[in-house]
Amino acid sequence: MSKAIVIGAGQIGRGFIGMELAKAGYQLIFADINQKLIEDINTRKKYTVCVVDRECEETIVEKVSAVSSAGEEFTGLFTDCELNLVCTCVGQTALAKIAPAVARGISLRTRAGITEPMNIIAVENAINGSSQLKAFISEYLNEAEKKYIKEYIGFPNSAVDRIIPQNPPEMKPGDVAVEKFFEWDLEGNGIVAPILPVAGLKIVDKLEPYLERKLFVLNGPNAVTAYYGWIKGYETIKESLEDPEIFETVQRMMEECSLMLEQRHGFSASEMRDYQLKIMERFLNPYLIDSVTRVAREPLRKLAPEDRIIAPMNYATCYGIETRAYYTGIAAALLYDNPNDAQSRQMRQYIDSVGIYGALENFCSIDKCSSASKAIAEEYYRLSAVNVKH
What we know:
Oligomer: single chain
Distance between the termini: 52 Å
Strand content: 5-15%
């Protein structure tokens, strides 16, 4: 039997990747640092995934187990010849943190002389996440182990798309709510071990177009919806998009991005229109209650120059495409003032210290003397006038 480890037993790990791998026939093992969650999985040996849509349906994922990702039991799993797939669902910023433990597992596998191939996939909202993980892991390997992964371990890059909202209060702690729609694209040239047929998994020759389309047209506008919604005092994404001003900004942002992707990757105009409509339909799903604070978390990561908001704006500018909606979206993100979010606190302190132009240069790599910086600052001060108490 093929075995799979999912590192990160959170909402995405259980509600998306874990469920689909289990349905495909993998024996599923979760690895996490949350001891209470580990005990719950090992006690119940199963959990329920509720697909929330016009017609809700439940899937029971059975025969699952969990280990601590910080312990020897986790690294010991790598010496199992039947283990041929490891997926991470921990968030891009945590990839460097899990790398030492994965490296120890690979070291044990190397010394055991196991020649059965294995794939390690970073299932994150990140461009080339698996390649990033490989680089982090390689820092802890000796030359023999580096030679081993080159021959026997693949790191195919991945793009995934499924909205995982906060669970309704009536759900059991170990269960998960998800939306019906999902996509999972995997770059074929990084695969070294056979992968069981997974529903919705598509092997592609070139991942970048699909990854950027998802990250830029879905994740970017979704984040801006949350930041703009926070400014106006809304609690959910759906509530935020029911505000005409927010809806118009987000729609224009999608349009600006779509024009860029048509030129950058050759998507047709009709493809991009259909994609935009599908995303907006998902955002407005009345059965999918997604909170503003969940989507808005870690604003500095989302404002990084290579991420979902700044990168598409820069690409669009290179193609001569107007990016007014992006200026508004970036301004809204810089106004995110949530004392419960560490990155929000850091951002606010920096802006209070050096001002908005310095923050744009420091966090977003936008020249403080550029026309874009001036336009974003104007939007920042305009939106600052919206006075909502949280």
